[in-house]
Design goal:
The chain is an alpha/beta fold and 245 residues long. The protein has helices at 19-33, 56-66, 87-95, 108-126, 142-150, 184-197, 217-231; strands at 6-14, 38-41, 70-73, 132-134, 156-157, 161-163, 170-173, 177-178, 204-209, 235-236. Strands 1, 2, 3, 4, 5, 6, 7, 8, 9 and 10 form a ten-stranded mixed sheet that branches.
Length: 245
């Protein structure tokens, strides 16, 4: 598959807490994508929704991976409990996410520990290596970036790019199309952004959906319209395709 005109789609916050919503997102996306999508998995969402090896949810994760769905580590707790010293980081933590930018304020050692713990858990569950790492809310501090390089993670993404921490190579550029529903203003602005970005002349178009999206008919309609428009001129792919081109 060539890199040109590629569609990459991901389901964020994959956790036992949101199993029903994840099923609805799969039902929405599978007719357009099949198994060509990524799941961003949280090992223990907010510290009280752990993925337990041998549990029914762990078995489902293994089944999804066996079908070819990419499995990314998505933080460890997803919750941000750091005290941010810099004004910019305080602003990003407050306005860009609802206390969920877990890896924004971690030190190199703290980030490394959580990456190692999460990676070991997921790899024991799915029986293979993880496909990459995406920080909650796409927010990375310097400690997280250093830890990802140390861990030689093959793929990572933020809101504006995909890169390989292992090699330092940039693999794709352009904003992720995503939706927000925390406030009416965020919901309306995300609908407007999606309507514009789905027509963007990007080589690689990325779409990221979250469990709360399925609770809003307007967001469901927008996700469906975005997938429909993208499929007219793009091939659904996997993030791993970027490493092979």
């Amino acid at each position: 598959m060539t890199r040109s005109r590629l569609l990459l789609a991901s389901i964020h916050d994959v956790s036992p807490r949101f199993e029903g919503e994840i099923d609805r997102l799969i039902d929405l996306m599978a007719p357009k994508l099949g198994e060509r999508l990524a799941m961003l998995v949280v090992p223990n969402h907010w510290g009280d929704a752990p993925i337990v090896p041998g549990s029914p949810f762990a078995t489902r994760l293994r089944s999804w991976a066996d079908k070819g769905i990419e499995i990314f580590l998505h933080g460890y707790f997803h919750r941000d409990t750091s005290v941010h010293e810099g004004a910019l980081d305080r602003m990003r933590a407050r306005f860009m996410t609802a206390s969920e930018g877990e890896f924004l304020g971690l030190s190199r050692a703290e980030a490394s520990e959580r990456i190692t713990l999460g990676r070991n858990l997921l790899e024991s569950v799915i029986g293979r290596g993880i496909d990459g790492f995406v920080a909650p809310a796409w927010l990375y501090g310097s400690g997280a970036l250093e830890a990802l390089h140390d861990a030689a993670v093959s793929l990572a993404e933020d809101h504006f790019r995909v890169w390989s921490p292992a090699s330092g190579k940039q693999l794709a550029r352009g904003p992720v199309i995503t939706w927000a529903s925390r406030t009416r203003m965020r919901l309306a602005s995300s609908l407007t952004a999606a309507a514009l970005l789905r027509h963007a002349p990007l080589e690689v178009l990325r779409i990221g959906v979250h469990p709360p999206d399925v609770r809003h008919p307007a967001l469901i309609a927008s996700i469906g319209a975005t997938l429909e428009r993208a499929r007219r001129s793009r091939l659904p792919g996997r993030y791993g395709d970027l490493l092979r081109n």
